[in-house]
Amino acid sequence: MSQFSKKLALVCALGTLSLSLTGCHGSKGLPEFTVPEEFDTSRNYEITFWAKNDTNKTQTEIYKKAIADFEALYPNITVNLNLYTDYGKIYNDVITNISTNTTPNVCITYPDHIATYLTGQNTVVPLDDLFANESEAVTTDGFVKEDAINDDALKHFQEVYSGNPISKDDLFYYIYGILHSQDYRTKYANNLSKELPRIPRVATYEDFKAFSEAGRKLADLHVNFEKQPRYKGVTVQKREGCSFRVTQMKWGKIAGKTGNAAKDKTRLIYNEDITIENIPLEAQEYVVNKKSALDWIVERCRKDAESL
Fold this sequence. Notes:
Strand content: 15-25%
């Protein structure tokens, strides 16, 4: 199968996958995704494509040019582009359209915006391997490793810190550290709300290494969070023979308070049998899309009436 055929087969298969999502809350089990062996060129297809950057004219033109080239290569396919001002609006529309089976065929968004609602292997499909040059791919135990940093980007930083060793891994973790820097997020908050982030070159190699090392440690926490030691002081209260089934998690309540002020975010009630206590309030400072990661979990990890 040619490289273009593989790409096209994946795009069309994603259409089938996206139409199989159901339920606004809880999860849906799906069989493992596989790339179809053949693509029917005698049929006409429409692909719905959602992405951010309707305010970034350069990015918009890139999308339109790519779509025009794709449609010229495959005349039987029409791509309908829908651009958004921010990822939050994409997320809201994805969630709304899941229940009506009208999700897009292709959507540039955060994986958890879709993966939260699916279970099973390969239900959210990475595209990277299909766009790689197969003749140059290097595999390890059946997996293809590709650097997220290209040679030009590495050279761009090596020129500033000449004479000092910088690998693609060093640069990757430097970027990870910069993107999680509170100073960076505060200083460029206005730009980050409207366009893709731009990565600065810090003044000294020592500063570069500091951000790179911090990013490496942070990435380890994020990727291997299940292996991290329990935060000192946090306790889990469990009844004997407890159930791990959850209908709706909720925060504890502060007496005499109402509304959000009444939520005791140091105490999480997982279900009737399990309560987590002494959660540090600093945990609320890790924010994803204007809401703390813990608040997302409490809000979204639940069973609705139809799935009980």
